């Protein structure tokens, strides 16, 4: 969702920069890159670590609520599609291929963004706070495959971040990777595109033909 379908990464970046200042550190480019695509807990933990916040001072619930409030305020006025994303969703939907929205974003935020994406496009959605551990662990993609009743290797994922792509690889799901802000190191299960613009059904089937 974030960075693949919707151009939300710059907005999350602004919220993360504000949070870093809030806890007494600076959001360096390296720190921001390391949090890209993370679950809320993982992203907050990395900023806490950078700010040397002791365990006793880490209020995950309150700080996650603060982040949610900030990003939803920004989403209300500046939520944009990634290039080709809307056409890609229409393509897959018209082919009657079941789609599951898989995101590390928590359910509270995802439900708001589904109003823009069109929740009717998806047979289900799985969020990072609904599995044992979010990306880069494989649980979220394995759950999505289970929902549609296919083996992971028979599914196809779209990802933009190293963390998200790593989750597909760990789950055994082939992926089309469209890097949005951070380069994604190659894996044998990844295919690469510069954007979703011009995507065809043949592009999807080519992944399973090994091309």
TrEMBL record:
UniProt superkingdom: Bacteria
Name recorded for this polypeptide: HAD-superfamily hydrolase
CDD domains, alphabetized: HAD_BPGM-like
Organism: Gordonia neofelifaecis NRRL B-59395
GO molecular function terms noted in the UniProt entry: hydrolase activity
Pfam family name, one: Hydrolase
Entry keyword annotation includes Hydrolase: yes
Classification via Gene3D superfamilies: HAD superfamily/HAD-like, Putative phosphatase, domain 2
Keywords: Hydrolase
């Amino acid at each position: 969702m974030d960075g693949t379908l919707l151009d939300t990464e710059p907005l999350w970046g602004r919220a993360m920069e504000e949070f870093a200042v809030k806890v007494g550190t600076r959001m360096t480019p390296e720190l921001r890159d390391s949090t890209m695509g993370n679950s809320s807990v993982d992203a907050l933990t990395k900023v806490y670590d950078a700010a040397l916040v002791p365990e006793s001072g880490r209020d995950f619930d309150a700080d996650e609520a603060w982040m949610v409030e900030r990003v939803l305020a920004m989403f209300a006025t500046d939520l944009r599609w990634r290039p080709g994303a809307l056409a890609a969703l229409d393509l897959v939907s018209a082919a009657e291929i079941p789609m599951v929205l898989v995101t590390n974003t928590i359910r509270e935020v995802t439900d708001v963004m589904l109003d823009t994406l069109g929740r009717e496009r998806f047979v289900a959605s799985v969020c990072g706070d609904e599995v044992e551990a979010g990306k880069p662990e494989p649980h979220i993609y394995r759950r999505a495959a289970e929902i549609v009743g296919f083996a992971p290797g028979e599914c196809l994922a779209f990802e933009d971040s190293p963390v998200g792509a790593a989750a597909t690889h760990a789950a055994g799901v082939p992926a089309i990777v469209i890097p949005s802000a951070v380069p994604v190191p190659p894996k044998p299960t990844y295919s690469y595109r510069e954007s979703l613009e011009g995507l065809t059904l043949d592009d999807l089937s080519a992944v399973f033909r090994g091309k």
